[in-house]
Specification:
By secondary structure, the chain is of the alpha+beta class. It has three helices and three strands. It has one domain. The N and C termini lie far apart (28 Å). It comes from Tannerella forsythia (Bacteroides forsythus).
Length: 82
C-alpha cells in the first residue's frame, strides 16, 4: 500500500478527468457519498487511472512532487497520446 492510499478518506470516480483542478474537484465533491463531502486538512489527488479522485491528507500529499493524473488528463483532453 502506498503512502497516499494509507492516508485516504475516500475515492470518487468522476469519469474522465479533465486535468483542470476546479472542474475535477467540483466533480469529486458532487460524486462524494460522504457527509461532509470534503473535510479540512485534505486535498483532492488525481489518481493516475484518469478517472478517480482521491481525498487524501494535505500534509502527506504536499510532501511529494509528482506527475500523477493531471498531466495525463490534460494530454487526453487535448487528444495527445504522449
Amino acid at each position: 500500500m502506498d503512502i497516499l492510499s494509507s492516508n485516504l478518506r475516500q475515492s470518487v470516480n468522476i469519469g474522465k478527468q479533465k486535468g483542470n483542478h476546479t472542474t475535477d474537484y467540483t466533480n469529486a465533491i458532487g460524486g462524494s457519498k460522504l457527509d461532509p463531502p470534503k473535510i479540512d486538512g485534505t486535498t483532492w489527488h488525481h489518481h493516475e487511472d484518469g478517472m478517480t479522485m482521491q481525498e487524501v491528507n494535505s500534509d502527506i500529499h504536499d510532501r511529494f512532487t509528482h506527475r500523477g493524473g493531471v498531466p495525463k488528463a490534460k494530454k487526453v483532453a487535448l487528444g495527445r497520446k504522449k
